[in-house]
Amino acid sequence: MLKLSPELAEFLGILIGDGYFDVARNRVIISGNLRKDAKYLTNYVKPLIEDLFSVRTISWKQENKGAKYLCFYSKPIIAELKRFDLKKTDIPKSILRGSKNAKASFLRGLADTDFSVYLRESRKNYPNISSTFSSGILVLQIKKLLKEFGIRANIYFQRRLINDKFYNQYNVHIYGKKNLDLWLKEIGFRNERNLSKIRLLNSKVKF
Fold first, then answer.
1. Would you call 115 exposed, middle or buried from its count of C-beta atoms within 10 A (0-12, 13-18, 19+)?
2. Which domains does the chain carry?
3. Which residues of the chain have pLDDT under 50?
4. How far apart are the C-alpha atoms of 90 and 87, rounded to whole Å?
5. This prediction's pTM
């Protein structure tokens, strides 16, 4: 039986961010951008999965979609993972009730798959960590977890018209050098896509 550890918590964050179960073929799939996420999937997520579950992973890419995929096959592990009641709409209760290390690891996995780091030019290179979700419950839970680390998050709601249909979007923004420093100290990043932005921030901006 799988027990919640910081490593498993991080994988659950990755799975909620960019993963899904292919139940018909008994496999778990993690997807990412072919250009931006390839190193993260190969150098970090692959060994994380193999160490956690003692399975062999396989990967492939779709050039026409600009996507890279990592997956493993295991019906028993899928059954174990489903015990955590994973959804794209909220954070698993085991994480919300878990240790601070588990919460930080979960947030890191989610951020490395779903969040971006950039500078707001309108605020003279003001750092911003942000993402967009379709679930209001999920973003409120993210905000609450971040508060436990002293990190302040702002949430903005909008309705977007896509293909003649309106969709709810909840934008999470974490502004400023203080919040960025707390994030790096308490949570951190593993995806080179985000780490390279941090290096760029440090080289361009004098706080």
1. buried
2. 6-103 (3.10.28.10), 109-204 (3.10.28.10)
3. 207
4. 6
5. 0.93
